């Protein structure tokens, strides 16, 4: 019986950005890959970020020059790979002399401009604020401006999973790895999902379980973790738009930390993040009152519009699994990644991923494949830097794409066309190619979400629940009423039943 179990070159545990990045890179090099995720793709840390592709200006203070250089270069690479979900953004840092002198900020921005290759993004400059037109308090009269990028973090994960699948990888969501052990020179991996238990075998096992990386080693593999993991909670609040314009603010605080205020989904401002030790269950992370007060205080110290807790539209929290460098300050714990390769038995390898950040996921994956190259002589070379992610293929202009959507779909509202353009890019035609009128899009659940799009997300993007669709695939959850959510859930249940009947038939 054992010989009937499929043997993969690689089984990846974890459907966050690092897991899908490694799976995608490996599949593109000709390896057979299976990825399993116990929940939905990007359902934990990877969808709870500040939604930035950035070099990490504050990491310069901690002398993390290698990480910053790599991240700065990756901004340009990722902007070319996925311009529909990643866009340039200017950041304004109000100058507060008692926190950091101007010369120090200018020096940091000089390095920021020149450490990494910069072709598409503008350099830094000093700015003056008008007391009348500035959203900041009148006493804040000048600052500095520089470039980074904003990203739809969850969609970045989904697009990498889609590309991995299209390159031959098998992606299983809501599938937990119960255990894995070495037998006869390969890994025997036991999986469980709603269909029951199954077994697959693999030459290499990749542990990209994020906050559970050490726990997976100890409990599921019965091995000692080579590194300690610091779980650092980061929380964000979403409030009604604080100011006009499309620029973000990076605010310094008396504790030497920084907090972003970022334009979000046209009508909101995203404020975060925090840094505090987390000791609980990573499956259940919620913003604390202390974090709420902290973020409100930082915002109110800078902006004329004064916020209270009643202004918070939504909040979210995530746990960053950082490699323990024994720093006393959670903000100073390294954001760099560490890859641990262990030869367990003969030619059987185990690769565990500690730390990392959204911006450097592609380089992390390349580094992982470099370490694993001795185990796969037939493995092809690097390829991801120039490869477009799904939706970026044949994408000439986002403005032209939006115009084409509006021209083809009669009576479609502008906001929906805008959302589709930035969420799906050229892949929007996968569910619109035969549609010419809004009436042909099927049931309308509200806020421009139609059955045609929902069916596509279920069929091609692993969506199962209303939260998968509203929180991670479309970001429409901020506008949906509870009654509409329930209608969508009922539709998804009936859709799942129809698909099961079709499979049985």
How would you sum up this structure, described in words?
The chain has 505 residues and is an alpha+beta fold. The mean pLDDT is 94. The strands form three sheets. Strands 3, 4, 5, 6, 11, 12, 13, 14, 15 and 16 form a ten-stranded mixed beta sheet that branches. Strands 1, 2, 7, 8, 9, 10, 17 and 18 form an eight-stranded mixed beta sheet that branches. Helix 1 packs parallel to helix 4, helix 1 (17-28) crosses helix 7 and helix 8 (398-408) packs across helix 9 (414-424). Helix content is 31%, strand content 26%. It has three domains: 2-45 and 155-227 and 335-386, FAD/NAD(P)-binding domain, CATH 3.50.50; 83-149 and 230-327, D-Amino Acid Oxidase, Chain A, domain 2, CATH 3.30.9; 398-504, Alpha-glycerophosphate oxidase, cap domain (Helicase, Ruva Protein, domain 3). The two termini are 28 Å apart. The protein contains 13 helices and 20 strands. It has helices spanning 17-28, 65-81, 102-114, 153-166, 213-220, 289-302, 361-372, 398-408, 414-424, 429-432, 451-460, 466-473, 482-504; strands at residues 7-13, 33-36, 52-53, 86-94, 125-128, 142-151, 170-172, 176-183, 186-193, 196-207, 229-240, 248-252, 258-264, 268-272, 276-277, 314-323, 337-345, 348-355, 444-446, 449-450. The radius of gyration is 23 Å and the shape is globular. The longest helix has 23 residues, at 482-504.
């Amino acid at each position: 019986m054992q010989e009937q179990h499929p043997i993969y070159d690689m089984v990846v545990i974890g459907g966050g950005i690092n897991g899908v990045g490694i799976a995608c890179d490996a599949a593109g090099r000709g390896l057979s890959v299976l990825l399993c995720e116990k929940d939905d793709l990007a359902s934990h840390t990877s969808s709870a970020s500040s939604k930035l592709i950035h070099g990490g200006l504050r990491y310069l203070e901690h002398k993390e020059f290698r990480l910053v250089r790599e991240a700065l270069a990756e901004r340009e690479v990722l902007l070319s790979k996925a311009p529909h979900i990643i866009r340039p953004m200017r950041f304004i840092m109000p100058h507060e002399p008692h926190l950091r002198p101007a010369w120090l900020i200018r020096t940091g921005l000089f390095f920021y401009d020149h450490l990494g290759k910069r072709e598409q993004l503008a350099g830094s400059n000093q700015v003056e604020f008008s007391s009348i037109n500035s959203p900041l308090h009148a006493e804040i009269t000048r600052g500095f401006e520089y470039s980074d990028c904003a990203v739809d973090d969850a969609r970045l994960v989904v697009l990498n999973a889609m590309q991995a699948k299209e390159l031959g990888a098998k992606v299983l969501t809501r599938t937990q790895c119960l255990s894995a052990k070495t037998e006869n020179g390969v890994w025997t991996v036991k999986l469980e999902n709603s269909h029951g238990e199954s077994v697959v075998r693999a030459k290499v096992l990749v542990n990209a379980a994020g906050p559970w990386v050490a726990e997976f080693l100890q409990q599921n593999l019965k091995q000692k973790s080579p590194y300690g993991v610091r779980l650092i909670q980061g929380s964000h609040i979403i409030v009604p738009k604080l100011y006009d314009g499309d620029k973000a603010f990076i605010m310094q605080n008396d504790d030497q930390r920084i907090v972003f205020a970022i334009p979000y989904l046209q009508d909101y401002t995203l404020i975060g993040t925090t840094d505090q030790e987390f000791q609980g269950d990573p499956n259940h992370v919620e913003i604390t009152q202390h974090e709420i007060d902290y973020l409100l205080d930082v915002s109110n110290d800078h902006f004329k519009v004064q916020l209270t807790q009643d202004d918070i539209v939504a909040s979210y929290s995530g746990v960053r699994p950082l490699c323990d460098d024994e720093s006393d300050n959670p903000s100073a714990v390294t954001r760099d990644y560490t890859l641990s390769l262990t030869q367990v038995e003969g030619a059987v390898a185990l690769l565990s991923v500690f730390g990392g950040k959204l911006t450097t996921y592609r380089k992390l994956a390349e580094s992982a494949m470099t370490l694993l190259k001795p185990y796969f002589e037939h493995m092809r070379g690097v390829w991801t830097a120039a490869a477009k992610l799904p939706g970026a293929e044949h994408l000439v202009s986002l403005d032209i794409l939006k115009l084409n959507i509006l021209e083809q779909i009669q009576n479609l509202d502008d906001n929906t066309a805008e959302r589709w353009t930035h969420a799906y890019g050229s892949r929007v035609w996968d569910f619109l190619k035969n549609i010419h009128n809004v009436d042909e899009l099927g049931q309308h659940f509200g806020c421009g979400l139609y059955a045609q799009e929902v069916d596509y997300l279920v069929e091609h993007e692993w969506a199962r629940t209303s939260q998968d669709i509203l929180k991670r695939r479309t970001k429409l959850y901020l506008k949906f009423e509870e009654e509409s959510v329930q209608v969508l859930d009922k539709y998804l249940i009936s859709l799942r039943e129809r698909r099961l009947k079709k499979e049985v038939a």
